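Lab manual, section 2.4: Encoding a predicted structure.

Procedure: take the sequence of the chain (379 residues), apply the prediction step described in section 2.3, and record the output as structure tokens. A sample record is shown.
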Amino acid sequence: MIYLDYQATTPVDPKVIESMLPFFSTYYGNAASSHKFGREIDHIVESKRKIIANSLHCSPNEIYFTSGSTESINLILKGFFDKQTGTIVTQTTEHNAVLNTCNYLEKKGIDVKYTDVDENGIVDLNQLKINLKNNNKTLASIMHVNNETGVIQPIEEVSILCKANNVPLFVDASQSFGKMDINVEKMNISMLALSAHKIYGPKGIGVLYVNKKVKNMISPLFHGGNQESGLRSGTLNVPAIVGLCKAVELVISEMESEKLRLLNLRTLLYQTLNDSLKDVLLNGDINHRISSNLNISFKNVSSDLLVRSLNDVIISNGSACDSLFNTGSHVLKAMGKSNDIIESSVRISLGRYTTQEDVEKAATEIISKVKMIRNITQI
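Recorded output:
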């Protein structure tokens, strides 16, 4: 199997698994317990929190552990408006975790302003500037890298607009962390979410960064034992926290070399497909996207049929969340793509274990299946 769906999830690195194992049966104490065993585990957790904080260039007391980005998104968006109404400023190409939460909050009386993107998937900064000018309590939620197209949003420019309007900025960094350097202080990011399973860590664990200046603006979703300074109650998942931290260390140490390696592989794949097939259309800005992503449409080819027909190659026809309901990509719709383009689009995402041989074999099979499907549909 040639796995090319790394933006959906990643395999857990063996070094991550190894780091976690002792915390299931040897160091299994509850980090909230006051006895010696509990204090030892708490010390380990806090040492891991420092490593996470260093990777984001923030203070350890601004790092909170959650079950992943979906929980973090719900915590911030719902928690920010728990006691009063106001406005959320977001964009039309956000992940469904943001869009569906915004839809829920709209029914509760929260005003949501959806900012458009251009044909390349880049947020309209002029429209964003207008949307941010609001006298109500306002929160901006803009993702860093799109989960379908890999397009990178100009977060630094977004943050300047937010700062000028005194609006806190929340960033979903699930697809950018470990692929790009993130300095929350320099980038003026107030809150940020990431998930371990996108960076070769375990599923069910994530990080929420909340700047200490805005922490009191957020009400918790869970109430219980007041873990995580009361912002996220619940017994800490220590094995997963340890695995998350190891994954962070590995992905940060390899980030620059991996970006270049994957860019070369992506270039090879894209050129091979273009050289062998007609009507291969790229979706999203090629110059402002992470190096591991290709979102392309094969004209007159059903993406669903293509994905299902591949024997040894794993790619996706959009977001894993969208595929649950077999709906067309809202991201490509927002970019102004036609239904034909959307229905023929696939996402190919490379990762740590992708080799040149994988890319060459994958290209061969994709080319073969595209030609087969086109021949069948023309009969």
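Check your result against the sample. The radius of gyration is 21 Å.
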